[in-house]
Amino acid sequence: MNAGCLLGQALAVDRDKFSELVTKKIEENPYIEIIKEEVTKINDEEITIIATGPLTSSGLEEEIKRLTGQDRLFFYDAAAPIVTKESIDMSKAFTADRYGKGESDYINCPMTKLEYEAFYNELINAERVELHNFENGGLFEGCMPIEEMARRGSQTLTYGPLKPVGFGKLGDVYAVVQLRQDNSEGTLYNMVGFQTNLKFGEQKRVFSMIPALHDAEFIKYGVMHRNTYINSPKLLDATYNLKGTNVFFAGQISGVEGYVESISSGLVASLNAIALYNKSASISDDLLNKLEDIMKGKNIIFDKHTMIGALADYISSSHDNFQPMNANFGIFGEENRFKSKQEKYEFLSKRALEIISSYIS
């Protein structure tokens, strides 16, 4: 069964076929016993993989809080769009921290009054995502969508996240959009204050009106929806193991986002759960020499130059503002030393396939 389908130049997933395929594989596996009941207690002395989804029940949510020591989960995903640094037009941007309080960590995208007014009019009239019932009811009071903030008045943004102050004299600059570095390699940048309910196509259209972002590559669009995930950079290592325990996390709860990404995290977590089990098993030295690392109980950490490894590294590395991440070339952290994106992506893909092939062989 093929769960993929081409949408333009992108490979998308047919949700129904995908879930049907996964369910079929699990049900047909003789080594898996399916027990259909709610789980609200986890024995952390046993090797366990928690792969609950974004609509985790309240009982399991409380148990995860106990296991992780968190007083809350990142229960609502209010994330701003992320763009690649190489796609930002730096001839129309500048680096600086407002009021000189940092080390020029931000990329600032200025707009004139005419540019801002055109952007503002499109922003307040752009098409939004229709919210589900469980996503209404004061959900975003502490984190206002950028388009809702704009509807309060044409100057609200220029006195808020787009205020053009703290940079010295900027001439005819009327508003400034700030981009904050989103990964340690400095290849990804987050649009500060741009959490939004706009449809993805509308985000691309409207946010590309910002002069420095006219050709921006959006590797993640802004979202505001219910999404349970843990603070993985503080809690998990690159094997998806909850540090110091026998518990692993996989799927969206771990901070990866997407169907294939969730399968990837499950693969890494399960391989390392097996390794953890074999680490405590009694194996003779003669047999041990013949076994692969996984049977010797060694951690299985994929190379960061593969997408599987890059995702695991992203969710387990330090982030000031961690948010769920899809698979994308930006998290490879590769500097821009290529003549074109096509050349870069072909190189990264070929290298990753060679590394994965060496694992398989």
Number of helices: 11
Rough outline: globular
Structural class: alpha+beta
Largest sheet: 6 strands, antiparallel
Poorly predicted segments: 5-11, 137-141
Give the CATH superfamily of the largest domain. FAD/NAD(P)-binding domain
Reading off the top of the CATH hierarchy, the class of the largest domain is best stated as Alpha Beta
The total domain count is 2
Strand order of the largest sheet: 6-7-8-9-5-10
Q: Fraction of residues in helices?
A: 25-40%
Q: From the coordinates shown, what is the CATH architecture of the largest domain?
A: 3-Layer(bba) Sandwich
Q: How many strands?
A: 12
- Using the CA coordinates, give the radius of gyration: 23 Å
Bin the strand percentage: 5-15%
- What is the H/E string? EEHEHEEEEHHEEHEEHEHHHHH
Structure description:
It is built from eleven helices and twelve strands. With 361 residues, the protein is α+β, with helices and mostly antiparallel strands. It folds into two domains: 171 residues, FAD/NAD(P)-binding domain, CATH 3.50.50; 145 residues, Elongation Factor Tu (Ef-tu), domain 3 (Beta Barrel). The strands form four sheets. The protein has a six-stranded antiparallel β-sheet with strand order 6-7-8-9-5-10. A two-stranded antiparallel ribbon has the order 1-2. β8 and β9 form a beta hairpin. It starts with a strand and ends with a helix. The relative contact order is 0.14. About 3% of the residues have low confidence.
Q: How would you summarize the topology of this molecule?
A:
Layout: E1 4-7, E2 10-13, H1 15-28, E3 48-50, H2 58-68, E4 76-79, E5 82-84, E6 94-95, E7 106-111, H3 113-125, H4 146-150, E8 175-181, E9 188-191, H5 200-207, E10 218-220, E11 223-226, H6 232-235, E12 247-249, H7 259-279, H8 285-290, H9 293-296, H10 307-316, H11 341-360
